[in-house]
Task: structure prediction
Amino acid sequence: MSAEPAINSAALEKIRELGDNDLVIKIIDLFVDYAAAKIAEAREASNRGDLQAVQFAVHPIKSSAGNVGADHVRAIAQQIEKLASQGEAGPIPARIADLDTAFVIARDQLIRHRTAIAP
Amino acid sequence: MKTPAIRLLLVDDNPVDALLAQRMLQALGDELPISTTWVDNAEKAMTEIREHPYDIVVLDYQLPGATGLDVLTATKQIPQLRRPAVIMLTASGSEKVAVDCMKIGARDYLRKDELAVAPLTRAITSALSQKRLEDQVARYIAQTGEDMKMARQLQHALLPQRFPNFPAHADLEDSALRFHPLYISTAELGGDFYGVLRLSDTEAGVFICDVMGHGVRSALVTAMVRALVEELMPAAGDPGRFLTEMNYGLSAILLNMEDPLFTTAFYLVADIARGRIHYANAGHPAPLHLRTAAGAVESLHNVGDRKYPALGLVDDTHYTTTTIAIEPRDLILLYTDGLVEIANASREEYGHARLEADCRARLGLRAPRLLDELVASAKKFSGDEQFDDDVCLLGIEVARTGQPGKETA
Result:
């Protein structure tokens, strides 16, 4: 496994600067739920061969992952969106599995961060 | 004084991005106070935009049920002064879509994954100043349109709403002279005007003019001319003197203008008792004398075929009076150049000669029908249903001549 951190902490710091740790906690909670739901949507869409729905599901992950500093999650979401838009169904299930893995790593790190800053 | 808050609608189905955007908008603080409403789909956005006045819509392109493009298109249906400025939100890799949205009216776009206070401030400030400028232009155009509409109504109100009968106690059918106008105005303010004066029970003064150009300038000069017509009543029995004095009065004003401004004019006095008309012409198209009994149509040229300049060009011009005889059933047709200058596809004008020929072919028609047929003929010639210029025709039917009690009909 890469030693590179799953979360770019500068992104979380930017969020904190906008408000306080409460805002960071809210954003982490929202992201964790939202991205998990969207990845599940993408998987289901891929299983039924609906590439447009795959594209629609992964598209919003890109920006929210970028905003919380989950750069690897964002990069994989972008690749899947591109594959889906080009009609390349073959590699998509494997990439969704990669996305899920990257998300779990990022999520765990975000939750650790959340625990550290929670009052 | 506290600046009123900018009303902003945030349209984004992604709760993470939406919360961040809201916090960024709050962070703009008192310098750019913003009241934000957040909706998470296109349908709610369209309802909000229809029902509430927003200054700015920050709009995600990809939404459940519809795209941001649908919302953007819906905003285009809203009148300018209530239409919000739209800033698109796009994910990375969707810049082309954002640019396409800008082509159909979005003011700006921001990448959602790089959303920050500074670019958000810049985009909102820029979109608002653009919108304020466009609103100013829209208000100005609306105000000008209203002013022009009122000016056209006023201009029409300056024209005679009814005509005198001769003698005064006669009804229209028994009047020795009958007047029939036909005025077709273009969308612009024009400079055509006519008026009829009662000089006595057996004398009528008839004036027609066409101020050069269109628009406010021409309309103002027309109003001046109308005022002068009233003021010059003492000279109204003598057409040459009437135009000479009117020219003097107009020149005093128009020659001070930076750009030349003038009006062509024709004035006649119909003397029923003596069976004559006296007239003077200041650069105006020569009216036509339809001599029904003689079966002839003649142009009312000045004596010696002399030409005189339009009013307002040369202040010391002396216009001379020409006199001709008239008979019962004659018709005098006064007109402005809008009728004869209508052109066909080969840019050939309908012209005075065709008008004369059309009148000759219609000798004996009553004025209302004659005027309608002349307009129809000019339109048929041009192949166009619209005139480029105002068209003003005034037909004077001579029903009787001679001293009262000894008239010839």
Notes: Chain B has ten helices and 15 strands.
